[in-house]
Specification:
Helix content is 39%, strand content 9%. The protein is α/β, with parallel strands linked by helices and 674 residues long. Helix 7 runs antiparallel to helix 9, helix 18 crosses helix 19 and helix 21 packs across helix 22. The structure holds S-adenosylmethionine. The site of S-adenosylmethionine (SAM) has 23 residues, from helix 15. It comes from Clohesyomyces aquaticus.
Length: 674
Amino acid sequence: MGQGRRMARKQAIPPPLDESLVTRKRKDAPAARVEEPKRKRRAEVRELKAGGAVNGGALKSKGRPVKPVKPTKPAKKVVPPPMSDDEIDSDDATDDDLVGVNVTGLDALGSASEDELDDEFHESGSDVVDSDTDVRKMGMWSEDEDDSDIEEKLTAANIEGLSRKLDMQKAIEDAEAQAELEEAALHTNIAGDKPKVLDDEDDEGKPITNLHAQDLQLLRTRLTDTIRVLGDFKNLAEEGRSRSEYKAQMLKDICAYYGYSEFLAEKLLNLFPPQEAFAFFEANEQPRPVVIRTNTLRTHRRELAQTLINRGVQLEPVGKWSKVGLQIFESQVPLGATPEYLAGHYILQAASSFLPVMALAPQENERVLDMAAAPGGKTTHIAALMKNTGCIFANDSNKQRAKGLIGNIHRLGVKNTIVCNYSALEFPKVMGGFDRVLLDAPCSGTGVIAKDASVKTNKTEADFMRLPHLQKQLILAAIDSVDHSSKTGGYIVYSTCSVTVEENEQVVQYALNKRPNVRLVETGLTFGKEGFTRYMGKIFHPSLKMTRRYYPHAFNVDGFFVAKFKKIAVTPMNAVGANGVNGVSSTNEKSSTENITQEEYVDKAPITEDGEKEGSDFGGWDEEEDQKYIERHQRAQLRRKGKNPKAVLGKAKMKAQGPENEIVKGSGKEKGEK
Ligand SMILES: C[S@@+](CC[C@H](N)C(=O)[O-])C[C@H]1O[C@@H](n2cnc3c(N)ncnc32)[C@H](O)[C@@H]1O
């Protein structure tokens, strides 16, 4: 996605990322987005009022039918969100994405008027900006306060103005919504007992082809009516109409209204009950909150927050689940060009991108492989959690993207990482024996449609054959690269920014089938929906419950999937290179893992959030550990040359220890003696 699309979107004040909506059962689909239809309806009404004809042609299923709603007041002096450093994780990402930051000339972040902003800034300024010394004296975030204190104080420090604004906004929105509902009830059949779902033909029986703004609103009404009927079919369905008729109608309307290809719309629709599907499609029309991740190799979150607040950034902690994320509400400075950004104190990173790394829970001094690493959002997070110790191999098959990865590694002060440029399929032949492996796989990007709307139409059936095939081969390579006997690890995390079952549960099931030496384990993540154990006639291993799904409508984060495996034995010889076409067990098939008892494996190394660090800003090297590796390498080299490592290295060691040692420990000959 180029910058243009992103820049064209105004970032309204987003709701906070909500991990409180933890739902263990898919059926408990949250009604969290009940507000959404209202919002959309309001947007349309505003368009209609403004006389803005919405592109009727879009209803012929081209592109997005609803133009982005312009803010009512022009936004001034506010700087928009730059693209995330890790933006568009899908493999379709272009080099533009690697630039990752937006320095100048961007649209406004938020739609508040200058006056409003001035007020807020003054407000926060009186608390924070102008009284820097006071704040520091008070210790906005003292070393010993607990997390909740920290979050409360951060919020209190800059959010007062914001919350007043939100209150006002909410009051206005509520009033508008009420008026609209009343207006809508007059025009539509919503108020009726049994909604008569609209036909595709006009009164004269001719097909309605060229729909305009009003039609679009009617289309939306039909969509919501259809969903209502599907939610209570027995009582609300019209006589003689079947459930599948209503479903087909819903699919058609989703394609027309949101601009999806029928192929993809159906795939996504099948993931949810109708009401939740609607919430998902709606959420894909809204940008996700802008989030930055504090680079704890360089700074603390509280210091970073303080500095950014002083620069006019309105922010708050991303949620209790992360100690390093900050959600940005508004900014008067370009977030991709602040001195702190350039000094590597933070990286722009979607909140959901934190999750795979948190699940991986890398430990200090481990050897970690990041198989598909560019542009490095997750690699640099791993490095921070490892406090720059141990060794990370950050691999990406795309050389251009690997350059962006190197850039981020340098900017963020990562010093324990080696970048390599192989197809990850070549692992473990290139290298194996890792304590942990992250496979953030190339995917279709159906979780990030809000960022890249082209996904709506450019994904074909071929993509959903090609990508899962690649993902399945990659996951086997990831498993085979891990050292099952690692004292601290032996874990593999598989993640995608897609929500399709083909790219997630089916890939995981394939891995379980082909590698009986791995088990799924809990991700350790505190929120997220359970992965599917059944889907459209397919049955997956019950442990798939331990995988986690993230949706924009449920948690206000990008769509994501995270699975964590523990490798418990070497890969059996007969499993190596196993190349089944489809590892998914159908209702009739028995999974090869079904008969294996599911022992419980718990990653004893907990997710060590990197909010607090001790010692130097740059972690440090473990000299002793390094020495061991250097010596091992030297010994191997000497042996290859046909020399006796003991003799050569022993001599060198004595020399290094100084003349006294040479005399004492030597062969009795003093230095210089022949
Ligand atoms: C989802 S993105 C990775 C994002 C990255 N983990 C981050 O957090 O910044 C997927 C990456 O996989 C890379 N890729 C695609 N096929 C690959 C392969 N066969 N081996 C290694 N990398 C591959 C793409 O170049 C792309 O950079």
